[in-house]
Amino acid sequence: MKMRNPPVNSLSLEFLTELLISLEKLESDKAFHAIILTSDCPGIFSAGLDLMEMCGRDPTHYAEYWKAVQELWLRFYLSHLVVISAINGVNAAGGCLLALSCDYRVLADNPKYAMGLNETLLGIIAPFWFKDTLVNTVGHRTAERALQLGLLFPPAEALQVGMVDKVVPEDQVLSAARSELAQWLAIPGHARQLTKSLMRKPTADRLLKERDADIQNFVRFISRDAIQKALRVYLEKLKQKKT
Ligand SMILES: CCCCCCCCCCCCC/C=C/C(=O)SCCNC(=O)CCNC(=O)[C@H](O)C(C)(C)COP(=O)(O)OP(=O)(O)OC[C@H]1O[C@@H](n2cnc3c(N)ncnc32)[C@H](O)[C@@H]1OP(=O)(O)O
């Protein structure tokens, strides 16, 4: 699955919906057993959630958007397919969440390709299920530091803290993901799937039990004047970077 939403693969409502539909199609076709998730945007895996969906819109839109974000995470996190990410670019916040929801992560060895949950740098916070997904991957202490400081880890550090499983030269990121896949596909499917569910269901259930409350919390939080201002300032900084 090659993500293509130029210029930065931001996860807009439309793009989230496309990803969901693609995933559902693959999952319902018995011929498919695995996905390699990668990017078609040079140097960028994903810039995360689309800030334009969270800025200057009305509460109904925020609620619709957040429901789609929840849905995409739940579907990827619990997918019965083997999902491996071949991370071939910078990968921020919501994009990083998507990679953390995969079964295995290969990152291209380029110092520019940092990844992490950097929400605090924007003046916002990573929701509890983003946090849980990170804790499940790198452990509590590393997650606590990474989340508070909004750290984006370059490849060597991402490997060292366990955020990714392998770092390879850029031109080998896809072939490394394919090689890894062979090992996962050699395991009897039902046993692997049940084990995945055993490991992940408690984390997913936390959100499933509080889905509506989580949407309401998001809408309340994102609608605050101070948060809207912080997002506008951040977007402005991104634009000024060019001049
Ligand atoms: C009491 C508590 C209750 C709590 C309740 C819960 C609360 C929940 C809170 C909210 C949770 C929200 C979670 C958010 C998750 C996210 O994912 S936020 C997004 C974070 N992403 C980023 O910080 C990355 C930002 N982008 C970049 O750093 C760079 O763009 C890049 C990815 C490194 C690429 O750089 P470069 O190649 O130089 O391209 P640019 O010129 O910077 O960008 C090109 C254009 O794209 C626009 N853009 C970039 N990122 C985004 C984005 N995420 N969304 C929308 N648009 C984006 C950028 O502005 C450029 O636009 P133009 O200038 O118009 O070309």
TrEMBL record:
Its main location: mitochondrion. GO terms for biological process: fatty acid beta-oxidation. It is found in: Mitochondrion matrix. It catalyses: (3Z)-hexenoyl-CoA = (2E)-hexenoyl-CoA; (2E)-tetradecenoyl-CoA = (3Z)-tetradecenoyl-CoA; (3Z)-octenoyl-CoA = (2E)-octenoyl-CoA; (3Z)-dodecenoyl-CoA = (2E)-dodecenoyl-CoA. Coiled coil: none annotated. One of its GO terms (molecular function) is delta(3)-delta(2)-enoyl-CoA isomerase activity. Homotrimer. This is Enoyl-CoA delta isomerase 1, mitochondrial. It comes from Enhydra lutris kenyoni (northern sea otter).
